């Protein structure tokens, strides 16, 4: 397991709960976007990418059709909010398809201030002209600094400012759970 900094406070999702949340998000995405051919999922590094890939697999299982996936790498240090840059920077874009006219679902693990999402939206708009951009997150922890909200949320978890949400995935951490720690 990846080392998690801070004092353990709570486990808010286990592997089974995470899978249920992703299944629910996938169904909600399809309810709002019935034409899979016009849909694409773009994960935000690090943990948004495997979450987007998992959602694509679930959607393929439901619809029998694949959904394009891509990735954005935003320069942030989520382990220490005090070191977050005022203006996150997109370091890398891995989108091997045309986004023009598509509905793009940005996928991230935790929605916090909204700055990462803002940088991702800016990058997408510079990259092409999507028909719409929607947001799916596993955890919405609050504390927004920008007027950004998620269209699809696995779990809302109100947190204190001294708490941290850690999403652990088998692809990145060899573990599968969501924890809250405090300083």
Structure description:
With 183 residues, the protein is an alpha/beta fold. The chain has a domain at 33-77 and 85-163: Rossmann fold, CATH 3.40.50. The protein is 28% helix and 34% strand. It has a six-stranded mixed sheet with strand order 4-3-2-5-6-7.
Give start-end ranges of low-pLDDT stretches.
77-81
Percentage of residues assigned to helices: 25-40%
For the record, the CATH class of the domain at 33-77 and 85-163 is Alpha Beta
Extended strand count: 9
Mind sketching the topology for me?
Blueprint: E1 7-14, H1 15-32, E2 39-44, H2 48-63, E3 68-75, E4 89-94, E5 103-111, H3 115-127, E6 132-140, E7 152-156, E8 163-168, H4 170-173, E9 177-182
Parallel strand pairs: 2-3, 2-5, 5-6, 6-7
Antiparallel strand pairs: 1-9, 3-4, 8-9
Helix pairs in contact: 1-2
Give the structure's gist in a few sentences.
With 183 residues, the protein is an alpha/beta fold.
Features:
single chain; alpha/beta; 3-stranded antiparallel beta sheet
């Amino acid at each position: 397991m990846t080392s998690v900094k801070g004092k353990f406070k709570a486990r808010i999702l286990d592997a089974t709960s995470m899978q249920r949340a992703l299944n629910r998000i996938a169904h909600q995405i399809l309810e709002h976007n019935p034409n899979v051919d016009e849909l694409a999922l773009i994960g935000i590094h690090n943990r948004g990418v495997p979450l987007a890939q998992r959602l694509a697999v679930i959607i393929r299982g439901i619809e029998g059709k694949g959904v394009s996936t891509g990735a954005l790498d935003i320069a942030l240090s989520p382990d220490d909010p005090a070191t977050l840059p005022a203006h996150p920077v997109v370091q890398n874009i891995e989108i091997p398809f045309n986004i023009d006219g598509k509905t793009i679902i940005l996928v991230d693990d935790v929605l916090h201030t909204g700055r990462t999402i803002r940088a991702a939206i800016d990058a997408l708009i510079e990259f092409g002209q999507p028909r719409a951009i929607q947001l799916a997150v596993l955890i919405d922890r609050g504390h927004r600094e920008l007027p950004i909200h998620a269209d699809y949320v696995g779990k809302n978890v109100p947190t204190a400012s001294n708490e941290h949400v850690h999403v652990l995935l088998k692809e990145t951490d060899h573990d599968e759970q969501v924890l809250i720690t405090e300083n």
